[in-house]
């Protein structure tokens, strides 16, 4: 029987960009088709994409880098790639079978041929929303887990600050910190998000950074004794203010700097001398270095999810055609919670 | 018999300063006297100061801080304090006797009454120059030792960069790195210092940063494969250039930022995003946290000094009256090697 050949809508980057990205920098291509069978003798898999993840690091991939960056640049005219949740349609790989649910790097399209299925994670628990594997149970969840528990090395009772705190990673860091018995404050860019932090995620305090004319004063208000742990998602002026408020032997886990990604030149950070005066460790990390911890992470967090100790808020765009706007919205702070795109519900 | 009362010259800070310090911000006071006997019942000691240490961190103490800094501000009109090598003249403390040689915090004066002699280190080895206890065998030596071996966590064969590399700390870091089998490059502010780095301290390469119009290009020239370890003594533009050239999982030990101490506002550092992309650990440290390692350090380094495996260059000013100029010279980069002041030879 000949394999089905079906239409395959996809989102491509039109050209490399500088500055703030626009929806029109991407394009929905509807003219492609795909054969739903892996080539003879190949160990690839064909997947149907269900959920796609919009993540800040993707901005870097939209620009051309002269030297290789930490993630490869997108290729203009080719499908955008990113994390997603998918169902295996056909497999030439002994570890995967049709019907398997997986998460990992896939394409912003309806069906993807994945030639390195070893990079995919099989989904074990399906009694939780499958979309969680783009966030809570996927790359952002593992990021929050290793960033907080390993890089921040938290101790009960410490003072923790999280920026972009209602985002895919931040909302989890705050909840992990509360479970550890820390005092936790988050910053976010709208009153709605601040409300979520305090009333949904259990942060002790939260503030809307856009309403603060003096970030240093804001931090002093919430941390009169200083900050032990800063989970850094934004960079720039917030980082500068945090540095002035760190306590002795404080730790900063640098996860992202979303406020800087669309600037021609990043803002200057002036207060690094405080890292010496206060003996602060500032450490950048990338989650790919910690994939070996994924199973440990899932086994640890699944019971917490089932028992309602950990909650998660998602912001869902319906349909591949809305994916470009969803991604751009991330840089405008339009998303409330983890931004994802539904390509198909099953 | 009545205790001798002798003249006691001292250097005082006249007023708190901002910006670049001047010799005339300090004053030599010759009108004081001191009684060479500790008060009855006191556990203090009286010391005769032999060598005084000029250290960059002292700049911070010359300004008034609204919030307590990591080192206390000097008190205008009172004697300047700092590290020095001294001989005990009289002691009310059971652990110290007249004739003991010590190093630790003392006054910029001929004789000092030290009310907390527990803070002093007794000098055990006197077959090396006593002045070394202001540098190689004192605070700067321990700083280099813990900063390199503990904070930098070096591995054989790694690429190491040291700024202010001919200074009290830098010259040692480079030699430690060479003893570990690392490739070591140093930067300094004169051709004389560059020559010293290459021909006296055994750095693989060295450059005069004042002759480089593009620090990023200079670093790329010496580190085509990037930097594993940066021992940070200067901050500002050099740090910014280094960040762009760090290798994956690189470490930066932030010891000082002398280029920034006399600025009204520190320069902005723009390239912190590289700490994420390259998973770099940037860690500030202060040597006082490591005093418990001092004996281990001395026992380890004394044989290396005796065998000529470690060498040390000092820049010596003769006489207390030349101490203010020696301290100011540090911020102008006039010193070649560890800057110290001889108050008395015995």
What is the count of β-strands of chain A? 17
Largest contact between protein chains?
A-B, 32 and 32 residues
Order of helices and strands of chain A: EEEEEHEEEEHEHEHEHEHEHEHEHE
Structural class of chain A: alpha/beta
In round numbers, the mean pLDDT of chain A is 96
Largest beta sheet of chain A, briefly? 7 strands, mixed
Tally the helices of chain A: 9
Assembly type: homodimer
Strand content of chain A: 25-35%
Shape verdict of chain A: globular
Spans of at least 5 consecutive residues with low confidence of chain A: none
Distance between the termini of chain A: 24 Å
Relevant terms:
homodimer; 346 residues; alpha/beta; seven-stranded mixed beta sheet; six-stranded parallel beta sheet; ADH-like_C (chains A, B); 2-alkenal reductase [NAD(P)H] activity (chains A, B)
What does it look like?
2 copies of one chain form a homodimer. The two termini of chain A are 24 Å apart. Chain A has 346 residues and is an alpha/beta fold. Chain A has 9 helices and 17 strands. In chain A, helix 2 (139-151) packs across helix 3. Chains A and B meet through helix 7 and strand 15 of A and helix 7 and strand 15 of B. Strand 15 (281-284) of chain A pairs antiparallel with strand 15 of chain B.
């Amino acid at each position: 029987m000949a394999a089905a050949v079906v239409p395959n809508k996809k989102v491509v980057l039109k050209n490399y960009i500088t500055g703030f990205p626009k929806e029109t920098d991407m394009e929905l291509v509807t003219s492609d088709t795909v054969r739903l069978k892996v080539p003879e003798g190949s160990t690839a898999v064909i997947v149907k994409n269900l959920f796609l993840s919009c993540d800040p690091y993707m901005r870097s991939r939209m620009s051309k880098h002269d030297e290789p960056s930490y993630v490869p640049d997108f290729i203009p005219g080719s499908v955008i790639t990113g994390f997603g949740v998918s169902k295996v349609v056909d497999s030439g790989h002994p570890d995967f079978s049709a019907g398997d649910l997986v998460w990992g790097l896939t394409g912003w399209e309806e069906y993807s041929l994945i030639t390195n299925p070893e990079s995919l994670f099989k989904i074990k628990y399906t009694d939780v929303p499958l979309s969680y594997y783009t966030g809570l149970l996927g790359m952002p969840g593992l990021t929050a887990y290793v960033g907080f528990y390993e890089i921040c090395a938290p101790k009960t009772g410490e003072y923790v600050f999280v920026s972009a705190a209602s985002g895919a990673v931040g909302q989890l860091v705050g909840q992990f910190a509360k479970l550890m018995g820390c005092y936790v404050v988050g910053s976010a860019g709208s009153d709605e998000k601040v409300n979520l932090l305090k009333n949904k995620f259990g942060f002790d305090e939260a503030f809307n950074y856009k309403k603060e004319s003096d970030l240093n004063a804001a931090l002093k208000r919430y941390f009169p004794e200083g900050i032990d742990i800063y989970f850094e998602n934004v960079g720039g002026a917030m980082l500068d203010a945090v540095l002035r408020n760190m306590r002795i032997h404080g730790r900063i886990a640098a996860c992202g700097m979303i406020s800087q990604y669309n600037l021609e030149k990043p803002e200057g950070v002036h207060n690094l001398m405080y890292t010496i005066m206060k003996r602060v460790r500032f450490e950048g990390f990338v989650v790919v270095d910690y994939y070996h911890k994924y199973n440990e992470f899932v086994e640890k967090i699944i019971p917490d999810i089932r028992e309602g100790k950990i909650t998660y808020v998602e912001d869902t765009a319906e349909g591949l055609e809305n994916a470009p706007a969803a991604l751009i919205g991330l840089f405008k702070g339009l998303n409330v919670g983890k931004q994802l795109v539904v390509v198909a519900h099953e």
